[in-house]
Amino acid sequence: MKFVTWIQEKYAATKETLQRGWKQGSTFAGKQFSRVEKPLRRYPMVSFLVLLALLFAIIAAVNLIHSPAETSDETVDRTKTVQTVSIGQAPRIRVNGQVEKSGVITIVAPAPGVVNSVLVEPGQEIYKGKTVVSLASNYSGGSIPGLQAQIAKEQWKNLEETYPAQKDIITKQRELAQKQETQADDLREISRNSLGTSRDLLDLNETMLETVEDTLSTSTNSAEIQAARQMKAQLLQGIIQLRSQIDQTEYQSNDDNPPAELARLQRDLTLKQLEVQEKSLELNKEVTQLQLRVAQVQAASMYPSAPFNARVERVHVSKGQFVQAGTPLVTIDCDTAVTQVIAKIPGEISQQVSSMEPSVLMIGSESIELIPDYVSHEATDGQLYSVQYTLPLEVTEWLTDNSFVSVELPLGYADTSAVVPFIPIDAVHQNELQATVYVMENFQATAREVKLGDVQGRFVMIESGLNPGDIVIVDRNVVAGDAVKTI
C-alpha cells in the first residue's frame, strides 16, 4: 500500500505540473494529460504495476551499464616509508644567529651639549669625515673645548718658537762645563810649573838664614847683632810662607787630590743636570703636543662626523635640543659594508662544529649554505662561544641590524672518524631499563640497544651501540621486523 500511496502522490504532482503548463497556453500538454488521466483513474492498480515494472527495468539497465570491473587478488604492499639518518653523516643542530651589519651605525653625541645645527638630512649621500651635527656648550654657540684647543695651540706654538733657543742654551752650558774643567787642569799645570821657582826661593832663604845664624854666633857688635836678628825674623817668615805655598800648590796641582776630583765631579754634575734638563725639554715638547691633540679631539667631539661614505637613514635630533653623551644623533648606512651572522653556542658544541661542511642559514623563505669564517677558541659572551659567518651582499638588504636568523650547524665531518655520534632524540625509545633505537638492516627494522650521552638541543650523543654506516630510523611508528624503506 505504501507504493500505491507513492504512485498517487507522484500522480498528483504530475497533474499539477501539467495543469500549470496548460494554463500558460500549452494546449497540447493539456490534451495529453486528459488522455493519460482517464486510464489512470479507471485502472489505478494496473497503472501502478506498469509503472513499477518500468522502474525495475530502468534500475537493471543502469546496473548493467555501470557494473564494476573485476578486481584482481594482488598482494597489498605493507612496507613502511620512514625517515632515516646515517652514522657517518654529520648531524646538524639548529641555533639562532644574530645579524651584525657593520655598515649600519648610529652616530651618538660624544659629549653633552646643545645642537647648534643639523647639517644632513635623510636620504642624503655623505662622504667620510662629513660633519653631521654641530654641538655647542651653550645656546649662544660658545664651545669650551674649542677654546681649550686654542689655548693648547698657542702653548705649542710658543714651545716651537723657543725650543731651538732652549736647546742652544743647554749646548752652551755643556760647553761651559767642559771648558771649566779644562781651565782647572791648566791651572794645576801652571801651579806644578811654579813649584820649582818656589823651591829655589826657599833654598835661597834657607841659605841666607844660615849666614845670619853664623853672624849671630860670631859677631860681638850689638848693632850688627840687632840687624842680624831682624834679618833672621824676616827670613824665617819668608821660609814659612814659601813652604806653605809650596805645600798648597803641590796639594792643589796633584790630579789625585780632592781639588782635582771636585773639579771633575762638578763638571760631571753639570753635564748630568744639563742632560736631565734636555730630556725634560723634550718631554715637555711631546706632552704639549699631546695636550694639543687631546684638546683638538675634545673640540672635534662637538662636531661628530661620518666614519665612511654612506647614506643618511635617519636624523634623531633637531636644532636647539640639549643632548647627553651617548644620545643618538644620526643613523647612516654604507652599502659596501660587511654583514655578519654570529651564532652563540656552548663550548662543548663549538669544539665539534664542522669547518669543512657548509652550515645552512635560513633568511626569510630562502636558505643559503656558508662555511664558517671562524669558530672562537675562547668564550666571547659569558660562557658561550661564537661561530661567525659573512653574508653575501645580495642578501644583506633583506636583514636588519641585530635581527636573528636560524642556523643549522653541522657537527663533525662526514665519512670520517671525526663524526660526532649524534642522532635525533625522536629516534630513541627509552624505558627505565634501557635505551633502544631501530636501524634498517636488509630493509627491515631491527632493534639495537645503545648507551646515551649528553643531549644537545634536539640531538643526543650515542656513546656505544652504533657503528659507522648504520642507518637509524627516526620515525616512531615501527617495531622490530617491520619492512621499511627510506623516503
Shape: elongated
The proportion of residues in beta strands is 15-25%
Q: What is the level-2 CATH architecture name of the largest domain? A: Orthogonal Bundle
**Which CATH class of the largest domain applies here?**
Mainly Alpha
**Over all CA atoms, what is the radius of gyration?**
59 Å
The main β sheet shows up as:
7 strands, antiparallel
Between the first and last Cα atoms, what is the distance in angstroms?
Answer: 62 Å
Approximate helicity band: 40-55%
Q: Please name the CATH topology of the largest domain.
A: Helix Hairpins
Question: What would you note in describing this structure?
Answer:
With 487 residues, this protein is α+β, with helices and mostly antiparallel strands. 45% of the residues lie in helices and 24% in strands. It contains 8 helices and 23 strands. Helix 4 runs antiparallel to helix 6 (258-300). The chain is elongated, with a radius of gyration of 59 Å. The model is unreliable at 69-74 and 414-418 (pLDDT under 50).
